[in-house]
Design goal:
single chain; alpha/beta
Length: 390
């Protein structure tokens, strides 16, 4: 269909084609900043920008946010040898072997640590955030014998760039969220998996949140937790709990609680929050990169489950590995561990002094996470332009 629409005659012979492949809605925010930066080059360089989507939801999001049409189906990219560069943010993206295929690190240390060669070899370049993710890429490429065939480029995080240039007052952002600017703010950002905090303690946590008057609470669940009941994997993703309704009811009951789970880009939440509460979600790395404290709810059930059923997939079969390897635990060893939900009250009350108790290891790790702070999108765009030699 791409060719039938006569794009080949109009564009392919005159311009270098760059396609942003957004297979899922949650990947859009990692690609959009690079796309918007490259748009500034379209009048001075012979490039043309397109989008591909993996499903209707992703397509609708792209159309709504960017006002673009003629969005391709992700599945056909592998057949289009005319594409010069394809940029994606997940390991399942595929395109023609004649295209340069760039993977933008989107902060999934568990999965990235153990992807097979069959996925890795589909890419020509990996864009890392900093020393930490570069080492993850290096380890997995060496493990699969691909270290000499794929390039690692340290660009930083285009997704986090706005956090280093936001000029809006914290008070204004909190007021827009309907929260109290005079209270400390925590963001609860768990992963979705069986055995982690939402599944184990969700209702207990929300009951505590309902009674808590010492902080604002921003709820940012993994988007998969809001999977519709009609979806074939509803039980797998949600544990058969309608988390969207549960959270909605909670927000209606408590003025100091808001939900940003379905916001297209909630980066400002990270800017205004004082503490992140999570389990093993890799979003904790975003917060640590900003030099902010993270509390990890200990979930013994997950460690038991992971070491028995997911060890082969993740490649870290011991509980000790899950507890100490930052590629898996998102920096748990430099954060605060919560062993009992009842301990949250004292933790929240200590927020004003938490940063003073962060270790030297925390700040060393924070520095390793992110390079080119605030300029990552420009670094990524300029690298793409250099690849095309236009």
């Amino acid at each position: 269909r791409f060719r039938v629409l006569n794009y080949k005659n109009r564009v392919f012979d005159r311009k270098k084609i760059i396609v942003f492949n957004c297979r899922e809605t949650n990947l859009f925010c990692f690609l959009e900043p690079i796309y918007l930066t490259l748009k500034n080059y379209t009048e001075t360089h012979a490039i043309a920008l397109y989008w591909a989507a993996g499903n209707t939801s992703a397509k609708n999001l792209i159309m709504r946010k960017l006002k673009v049409s003629n969005i391709l189906d992700s599945d056909i990219l592998v057949y289009l040898s005319e594409l010069h560069v394809v940029v994606s943010a997940d390991m399942w993206s595929r395109c023609s072997s004649s295209s340069r295929h760039i993977n933008v690190f989107h902060n999934q240390p568990v999965k990235y640590a153990n992807f097979p060669a069959s996925k890795l070899k589909n890419f020509s370049h990996f864009y890392s955030w900093g020393k930490f993710s570069s080492q993850i890429y290096r380890d997995m490429l060496e493990k699969n014998g691909l270290i000499d065939t794929v390039q690692i480029v340290e660009v930083g995080s285009p997704y986090l760039d706005p956090l280093f240039s936001l000029s809006r007052e914290k008070e204004l952002v909190l007021l827009e969220l309907g929260l109290n600017p005079n209270l400390p703010t925590i963001v609860y950002a768990p992963s979705w998996n069986e055995g982690l905090s939402l599944r184990l303690y969700g209702k207990e946590l929300f009951s505590f949140f309902r009674e808590c008057d010492t902080v604002n609470i921003i709820i940012k669940l993994h988007p998969i937790s809001y999977t519709e009941k009609s979806h074939s994997k509803y039980h797998f993703f949600t544990g058969s709990q309608d988390w969207k309704k549960i959270v909605s009811d909670l927000v209606k009951e408590k003025a100091t609680i808001c939900d940003v789970t379905q916001c297209d880009n909630s980066s400002e939440v990270l800017q205004v929050a004082d503490l992140m509460l999570t389990d093993l979600s890799s979003i904790a790395l975003d917060f640590i990169a900003l030099g902010k404290p993270v509390a990890y709810i200990h979930c013994e059930a997950f460690f038991q489950l992971a070491t028995s059923t997911e060890a082969a997939r993740f490649g870290f079969p011991t509980k000790e590995g899950l507890l100490t390897d930052r590629r898996i635990n998102a920096g748990r060893d430099v954060g605060f561990v919560v062993n009992d939900v009842r301990d949250l009250d004292s933790l929240f009350r200590s927020i004003p002094t938490l940063k003073t108790s962060l270790s030297e290891n925390f700040y060393t790790f924070s520095d390793e996470l992110l390079s080119h702070k605030g300029q990552s999108r420009v670094v990524a765009a300029e690298h793409i332009i250099s690849l095309l030699q236009v």
